[in-house]
Amino acid sequence: MDVKNFFVEMLICTIEAVDIILIYLTLIQKLYYFKKEKLKIVLFVLIYAIFSSWISISVPTVYHTFFIMVLVVMVLSMLTSTKIKVSFIGVLAYHIYFIVFELIAMVLVSNISGVNFFNAEELQRIRFPFAVSVKIAEGLLFMATVGRSDKYTLNLSDSDINDGNIAYWALNMVLMGLVILSVNYINSNSVNILLYNTLLFLLFVFFFIIGIINYRKMLELINIKHKYQVKEEYINNLEAIMDIIRREKHDFSNHINTVYAMCVLNKPDTTEKIKNYLKSSINNLNSSYKFCDTGNTYIDGLIAVKSNYAFENNICLDVDFESSLEAVDINDNDLVAIISNIIDNAFQAVLKDTRERKKVVSLYGYIENNKYNLSIANNGPMIPEENRTRIFEKGFSTKIDNKKDHGFGLFIVERLVKKNGGDITFFSSEEETEFLIILKLKKGYYEKDS
């Protein structure tokens, strides 16, 4: 392929790429990409034009359409956050449209002008004007007909994290396979090696850019997923609180009936008995659940649920936040997981303690040395010396029943703390076991030690 033919091929492929992205985005109802995602549009056009030109000199003609379709399916799936199967349907639809349109155009031109498309010289002479005219007409006709109606669009959901990863790795494997396949072909044909290597280099550069885009999109999807998980956990906590309120409402009715009956009977010391009865009921109500203002709505809901569990199991849950959790530089989902796991472990520790004494679990939050300190302690059994070096190991557990399902709580906690740039330590004695979590403060938060 000489320089002139190469640039002609590039121009035709560029126009075709614009047609493809226009038709594809119309089918999947994402035409707004032309306004909001201009970089992705340009990236696709460049990749398509370079890949089509490269493959025309690298592999036998019979494989061109197949590999181009594979490339387009994977690239569009990643760039437009579309499921691979949706991308495949869209790509197949416009390929059928292209083939039918071009066959009709060839028949019309052949009958009107007498051009013989099976003659290599005639085909070479009219190829450029014919191809450009047909590509432009394809796009205009599609937008004038199908593009005006939602009847022919693919009303399917966006991709998830796995779809993007599958598409990216499949694309890499296809490209590697093509490079290997092309070695024998370029050796047996007069191929411009400089042109071949230049196009191949550009392809790898653009695929690297796609990899960065895909990675950033994956992180964004993970963050969104985490936010939904936090909200789901918060909703579960609210539902648990509503169950508590319903139960308390039923108890209130019983308490009112009891007081009313005592008033009707009007026995000696009735007033004093009613006062003591109400005092006891109010104490139980105050102990059954705690509503705290920690500075984090999700933790407030978590503590309300945990405090009710503590009350039902005769555990004293002491909560005190001297400093608001708003100051902590951490993902809400991670913070909920950290506090929930350690409080659950603390509850289990005090419940298995056979000593006759008050069961206490405490949760304190304060700022010290420009760090946020979370202290979660319990007065359960001391952690044995032989277990202390293994307590954060994956799968390590002292529980006997269903051991394979345990041993991940503290392992997860340590990973989440480290992920957020924090540190976790613990101290254990006969009197108390304390886990101290030290986390970074958000920029702008600063308190001097008192």
TrEMBL record:
Enzyme Commission no: 2.7.13.3
PROSITE patterns attached to this UniProt entry: HIS_KIN
Enzyme class: transferase
Swiss-Prot/TrEMBL keywords: Kinase, Membrane, Transferase, Transmembrane, Transmembrane helix, Two-component regulatory system
Domain of life: Bacteria
Pfam family, one: SPOB_a
The protein's name: Sensor histidine kinase DpiB
Source organism per UniProt: Clostridium colicanis DSM 13634
Source taxonomy: Bacteria, Bacillati, Bacillota, Clostridia, Eubacteriales
Gene that this sequence comes from: dpiB
